[in-house]
Amino acid sequence: LSAELLNAIREQFPALHQEVNCKPLVYLDNGATTQKPKAVIDALQRYYEHDNSNVHRGAHTLSDRATEHFENARKTLQRFLNAKKAEEIVWTRGTTESINLVAATWGRAFIKAGDRILVSGMEHHSNIVPWQMLCEQTGAELLPIPVLDNGELDMDAYKSLLTPQVKFVSVVHVSNALGTINPVADIIRMAHDVGAKVLVDGAQAVAHWNVDVQALDADFYAFSGHKLFGPTGIGVLYGKEALLNAMPPYQGGGEMIEHVSFSKTTYNGLPYKFEAGTPNIAGAIGLAAAVDYLHSLDRVALAAHEDALLAHANQRAAQIGGIRIIGNARHKASVFGFILEGTHPADVGTLLDQQGIAVRTGHHCAMPVMEQFKVPGTVRASFSFYNTLDEVDALFNGLEKAKLFLL
Ligand code: PMP
């Protein structure tokens, strides 16, 4: 990205322009959540100032307008993922709820004692615990696909785990702790060969490139709006129409029914069957604004810029020494997780914050990964396209200072 374009992009993100602890903010915690462009903030404001109303039920103009914007947002997300139909886009609160929905409904309907479910050893807790809960209820077995020391999935081990007992595979597209980009197209193809369905946790992927669920042949794809420059409290579950149709509903309530009586209740069609209660209307509209904003940019150039930020971080790390990078996969997104030898990640995080540098420290909701790499946690700088090479330098200058203080 040219300096000019990068500046113009940064101008669109008001939160980046502030001081923290008397220093210019260097926001490197994009894996946790991303900052919001003006287009998103404006869309939320416009909705609440002009169109605020409940959807799908009004006999009045505002409600019609809110419904139109809300359903158009669904179509925007359909195009974003290249789903066949808008009905395959279910609004949820986020990745966590999307995964829980599939575990609770597809799981309850189709998993039985003796079945096997595979996840990887690099999953976020939100792609482990719902499956453990399902296994407790059904007597199925949850098995982890091992992770190699470089942070890549052990694909040979995956192959040997894929027996006919495996009914479901749920894997992360990009690891939030390691940055590894998993070969999900291969993972899906191999799972389909034994008749298993696959969910991909795309929480950390969608911010970096355009995902095509049809090209991947994913059965389910889950992500959160807030990691894609959109609002919190809104997320997406994509599911193939036939699978969603075969699944029982998730929560019961308004919107998800066709007819209710005390003798028998019938359910609404897709996607409303899975959207009980008043949805996050503003959130959906805000998320669509984020997607429109991204489509106004050259995403390939943005991804190349993120790669350059990561390459620069690797270079600086080698220069200052004493840095152990956790996660060295060949295909890696702009997630830089590390340990400053001889220090605790939390202390490093505090010292960086004092210099205005926002990173995340801890286990990143991926305790099994920390266990495997025998670390209590890591310091994680996760870069977005609005970050600059100067900000990467600020991180390493900050680390030099932290070293002087801590070692
Ligand atoms: N999966 C991954 C890979 C994540 O990084 C996260 C968020 N850290 C989640 C799932 C959960 O997302 P949310 O908290 O938005 O539901």
From TrEMBL:
<comment type="function">
    <text>Catalyzes the removal of elemental sulfur and selenium atoms from L-cysteine, L-cystine, L-selenocysteine, and L-selenocystine to produce L-alanine.</text>
</comment>
<dbReference type="InterPro" id="IPR015424">
    <property type="entry name" value="PyrdxlP-dep_Trfase"/>
</dbReference>
<dbReference type="InterPro" id="IPR010970">
    <property type="entry name" value="Cys_dSase_SufS"/>
</dbReference>
<dbReference type="InterPro" id="IPR015421">
    <property type="entry name" value="PyrdxlP-dep_Trfase_major"/>
</dbReference>
<dbReference type="GO" id="GO:0031071">
    <property type="term" value="F:cysteine desulfurase activity"/>
</dbReference>
<dbReference type="InterPro" id="IPR015422">
    <property type="entry name" value="PyrdxlP-dep_Trfase_small"/>
</dbReference>
<dbReference type="InterPro" id="IPR016454">
    <property type="entry name" value="Cysteine_dSase"/>
</dbReference>
<dbReference type="GO" id="GO:0030170">
    <property type="term" value="F:pyridoxal phosphate binding"/>
</dbReference>
<dbReference type="InterPro" id="IPR000192">
    <property type="entry name" value="Aminotrans_V_dom"/>
</dbReference>
<comment type="similarity">
    <text>Belongs to the class-V pyridoxal-phosphate-dependent aminotransferase family. Csd subfamily.</text>
</comment>
<feature type="domain" description="Aminotransferase class V">
    <location>
        <begin position="26"/>
        <end position="395"/>
    </location>
</feature>
<dbReference type="GO" id="GO:0006534">
    <property type="term" value="P:cysteine metabolic process"/>
</dbReference>
<protein>
    <recommendedName>
        <fullName>Probable cysteine desulfurase</fullName>
        <ecNumber>2.8.1.7</ecNumber>
    </recommendedName>
</protein>
<keyword id="KW-0663">Pyridoxal phosphate</keyword>
<dbReference type="Pfam" id="PF00266">
    <property type="entry name" value="Aminotran_5"/>
</dbReference>
<keyword id="KW-0808">Transferase</keyword>
